[in-house]
């Protein structure tokens, strides 16, 4: 599944095996010159990465959306020319909500952590009890 975003707002270049990547270039419109990639953009990139990684085969009509930011820390902003790597893992589910945690790296160096809540009808795979709470 791909998020509803397209150029120029699609921030994630690729996503597979729990890892997503985004190239941060000087020509990216969200950098506006030499401004670094700050926390709001990193949160959005992480939500896009989680949606792509958690529901790769879900129909376009069922999408995960950012429902909450539970924790967000960024040691430093991501600069133009760096490659942002997002290592996303599913922490738990309750109904149509999923909680994910992500480790952020820029050119291989750790730069932050995020915990997000996403919502959407595909949060619980088909056939599972929608009222079940995972520990």
What's the SSE blueprint?
Blueprint: E1 14-16, E2 19-23, H1 39-54, E3 65-74, E4 83-94, E5 97-106, E6 109-119
Antiparallel strand pairs: 1-2, 2-4, 3-6, 4-5, 5-6
Description:
There is one protein chain. This protein is mainly beta. The chain has a single domain (14-123), classed as Thiol Ester Dehydrase, Chain A. It contains one helix and six strands; from the N terminus they run E-E-H-E-E-E-E. The protein has one helix at 39-54, and strands at 14-16, 19-23, 65-74, 83-94, 97-106, 109-119. A six-stranded antiparallel β-sheet has the order 1-2-4-5-6-3, covered by helices on one side. A hairpin with a 2-residue loop joins strand 5 and strand 6 (109-119). The radius of gyration is 15 Å and the shape is globular. Residues 124-135 have low confidence and may be disordered.
Please compute the radius of gyration using only Cα atoms.
Answer: 15 Å
Based on the coordinates given, report the CATH architecture. Answer: Roll
Helix content: 10-25%
Give the terminus-to-terminus CA distance.
26 Å
Count of individual helical segments: 1
CATH class: Alpha Beta
Q: Could you tell me the strand content as a percent range?
A: 35-45%
The counted number of beta strands is: 6
Q: Quick one: overall form?
A: globular
Strands in their spatial order, largest beta sheet? 1-2-4-5-6-3
Going by CATH, what is the homologous superfamily? Hotdog Thioesterase
Secondary-structure element series: EEHEEEE
Rounded mean pLDDT is 78
CATH topology: Thiol Ester Dehydrase, Chain A
Biggest sheet: strands, sense, closure?
Answer: 6 strands, antiparallel
Low-pLDDT residue spans:
124-135
Number of domains: 1
Please state the structural category. Answer: mainly beta
């Amino acid at each position: 599944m791909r998020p509803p975003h397209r150029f120029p707002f699609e921030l994630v270049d690729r996503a597979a095996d729990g890892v997503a990547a985004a190239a941060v270039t000087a020509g990216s419109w969200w950098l506006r010159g030499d401004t670094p990639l700050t926390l709001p953009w990193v949160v959005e990139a992480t939500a896009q990465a989680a949606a792509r990684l958690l529901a790769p085969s879900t129909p376009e009509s069922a999408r995960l959306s950012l429902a909450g930011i539970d924790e967000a820390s960024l040691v430093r902003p991501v600069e133009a020319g760096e490659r942002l790597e997002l290592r996303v893992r599913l922490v738990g589910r309750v109904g149509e909500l999923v909680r994910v945690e992500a480790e952020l790296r820029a050119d291989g160096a750790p730069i932050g952590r995020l915990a997000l809540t996403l919502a959407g009808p595909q949060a619980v795979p088909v056939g599972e009890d929608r009222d079940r709470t995972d520990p």
